[in-house]
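Technical note accompanying the year-one report. For the benefit of new consortium partners, we illustrate the data format agreed upon in the data management plan: each record pairs a sequence with a C-alpha cell string. No post-processing was applied to the example shown here.
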Amino acid sequence: MGKKLTSRAEDYSKWYNELVVRADLAENSAVRGCMVIKPYGYAIWEKMQAELDRMFKETGHQNAYFPLFVPKSLFEAEEKNAEGFAKECAVVTHYRLQNDPDKPGKLRVDPEAKLEEELVVRPTSEAIIWNTYRNWIQSYRDLPILVNQWANVVRWEMRTRLFLRTAEFLWQEGHTAHATKAEAIDETKQMNNVYATFVENFMAIPVIQGVKTESERFAGAEDTYCIEALMQDGKALQAGTSHFLGQNFAKAFDVKFANKEGKQDYVWATSWGVSTRLMGALIMTHSDDSGLVLPPNLAPYQVVIVPIYKNDEQFEAISKVAEDIMGDLRDRNISVKFDKRDTLRPGAKFAQHELQGVPLRIAIGPKDLENETVELARRDTFSKETVILDRISVVVEDLLEEIQESLFKKALDYRNSHITEVDTFDEFKDVLESKGGFISAHWDRTNETEEKIKELTKATIRCIPLEMKEEKGVCVYSGKPSEGRVLFAKAY
C-alpha cells in the first residue's frame, strides 16, 4: 500500500492530510477549497446520517428541502445573521454565459443576463426557511413545526482542510418553530443531547456539553449550546451546535401567530446542525500511525474475510466456509466483506484494511480448514487469536462491542487527563504550550478579557460547561471576580 504515513508525533497536520487521502476517504477537487468525498468516506457519512436521521425522527422531526439560493434582500433581513456570514458568502449575479467574441472557443458572462436581485448561495438556511414559515403559520394550531433538512452549504473559506473546513460541505440543519419560549429552549437542549448521545455512542468520542460565550454564539442566536470534543493533538473541536434563536427571525420575517387567547405573538425559534466536520473528528480521535481506526458502529463493514490460497481448489473450499461465516454474521446484523480480489496478495489486502480501519479481520487458509479454525485480528490493538469455526460469530459479536467500548474509554481517559485547572495566567500559557487540551480557568465574563486571551494565546473559550460548579474565584487574566471556571483550548 505504498510508503508509511507520516507519524502523528512528527507532523500531526501532515499525518491527517495523508491519512484522509490514502485511506480513500476524500481528495481535493478542481474547485478551490472543495472536496470529493470518495465512496469509502461517503459510506461512513451515510452511516452517521442514517443514525442521526433515525434519532431526529424519534424526537418528532420530519425532513424537508429548501432552495440553495437565498435572495439577498431575505438574507439581509436578520442583521446579525447577515453580518456574521457576509464575508463567507458566494453570490450569483448573472444567469447566462455566451461565446466570447474576442476569444474563440471561450465563454464569458452575458452582460445582458444580470439578475434583478443577486442570490446568495446558502451558508445557512434560516432566512429562506423563516420566509417560508411565514406562509405556514397563522395559529397556535400550526405549531410546533419540527423540520430538518439534509443539504450542502457554501462558506467561502480562505484556508481549507479536507472535512474540517471546506468551501462546500454536507450537513443537516434543523429549523423549528414554537409557541412559547420555554418550548423552544427545551428543543434547543434536547437536540444538543441528541448530538451528544450520537457522538458518544456511535463515534465513541466523549464530549462536554456547554453554552458558548456571546462572542462565540451563532450569528442571530440568543444562546448557542454545543458539544466540544478533544483531538489527540490536544486541540478542541466543536462537534455540534444547537441554537435558541428567540424571536429574532420571527420579527425579521414578520412570522406571527394567534395564541390560545386569540392575541398575536411572534413565534419562537431554534436551529441546530452537524456536518461532515464530524468525519474529521472521527479520524483524529481514534486513528494511529498505521491508518484509520473506526468504531464498529460506524465502520462501512465491521469484518473483512481474507482468503489465503495457492490454487482454485483451495479458494473454492475457503469460499464455502467464508460464505457460511458471512451468513451467520449478517443474521446478527454484522456487516462483512469477503475480499476475494485476485489482483492483490493477502499481505497487501491486510495493509489496505488496516489503513482503512476495518475493526476485525478474519484470515482463512488451508491449515485453518484442516483445523476448523480461523485467525481473527483486531485493528485497534493489532492482537490476533485463533478461533474455532463454530464459535466465530459469537466471538466477533462480543469483540465488536468490546472494541466500541474500548475506543470510547481510551478517548475518555485521554480527554480527562487533558483537562487542567489553572489559577494564574503564567500557568495558563505554560499548560497551553507544554500539554494542550482543555484548560479550566476562571473568567470575568467580559468580552474584553476573552478577546485579549485569544489575541495573546490563540486559545478561545470553548464553552461554559453545563455542569459547571459554582466556584468563586478571580479571573485568570484580569484578576476580577469570577463565579466559576470555563474551558479554554486551541481549536480547529
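Partners are asked to follow this layout when depositing records. The longest strand covers residues 168-178.
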